[in-house]
Amino acid sequence: MSVLNGSHYQPPFFLLSGIPGLEDAHAWISIPLSVMYVIAILGNSIIIHIIHKNPSLHEPQYIFLSMLAVTDTGMSASTLPTVLNVFLLNHREIEFHGCLAQMFFIHTFSSMESAILLAMAFDRFVAIRNPLRYTEILTCSRIAQMGLAAMVRGAALMAPLPILLKRLPFCKNIILSHSFCFHPDVMKLACGSIRVNIIYGLALVLCSFGVDSVFIVLSYALILKTVLGIASREGRLKALNTCISHILTVLIFYVPLIALALIHRIGKYHSPLPHFPPILYVLLANMHFLIPPVMNPIVYVVKTKQIRDKILKLFIEKGTEES
């Protein structure tokens, strides 16, 4: 611990935090958290398996859904080790480079999810606007290219984050605000100028999440225009019903993200945040990275009959084999 006596240094580790004010209840909080992680990983894995094993589901809509499930699984796997370590085992230390690696994967999967949600919005637009050419426009090769583009964009945009943080000197404060490594949270502990980090972080948000959200809104504006042009009321309702699952998924992903971004901007990256209680800051960050992987498979199972029927068939067959 002698390294902590210096005024500037690259710390060997950071200390993660749970929920402020509820430290004594962390062992109990770990129970619902563990259940949520099981639902997230198991639910998304089942969706991937169902779509992979059923040729009738090898359509653009379901292929994009399997991509979303893969991304959600990756996001859950990125946060799970440290979250459960903090809440279940009260193990708060995370090695410096391990923290930067976790941060990279968390933000990369988040960016990938945003891009896939945009691709799914385009999928709904094509399906409603031009249903006769739906599979002709969204071929398997084009879908693969869109998935690869989402992955490459996410990795390329997030790769500079750990590099920019490594060049900074850090002070004696090594206590993070979350149970995982989050770029603005790590950045605010630095002693040197973080102007470059702030500018790049803002540009990154605008170029990925900002652009994606604008095009998602634009896609739904065009979808709504197309739906209003359908003559029958039943036809309009049927067309809109195919978008409900995706709309819910977009809201689940973007609402906590926007709220968290606003808190960071208002707080100006200083700790403690002057306008909001710390618990709100922590809860919003956990909601953004934990709730989508949990809720997305539930939404699609409840709202998508084809997925629901295949899952019921799978469990019925398993039950028959065991009996």
What features would you describe in this structure?
GO terms for molecular function: G protein-coupled receptor activity; olfactory receptor activity. The chain crosses the membrane at residues 25-51, 63-88, 100-122, 143-165, 198-223, 244-267, 279-302. Keywords: Cell membrane, G-protein coupled receptor, Membrane, Olfaction, Receptor, Sensory transduction, Transducer, Transmembrane, Transmembrane helix. It is a multi-pass membrane protein. Residues 43-300 form the G-protein coupled receptors family 1 profile domain. The termini are far apart. The protein contains 12 helices and 2 strands. The model is unreliable at 1-7 and 269-274 (pLDDT under 50). It has a single domain (11-322), classed as Rhodopsin 7-helix transmembrane proteins (Rhopdopsin 7-helix transmembrane proteins), CATH 1.20.1070.10. The longest helix is centred in the middle third of the chain and has 34 residues, at 96-129. The protein has a two-stranded antiparallel ribbon. Helix 1 crosses helix 12 and helix 11 crosses helix 12. Helices cover 73% and strands 2% of the residues. With 323 residues, it is mainly alpha-helical. The protein has helices at 26-53, 60-88, 96-129, 134-137, 140-158, 160-166, 183-187, 195-228, 233-241, 244-267, 278-303, 305-322, and strands at residues 13-15, 93-95.
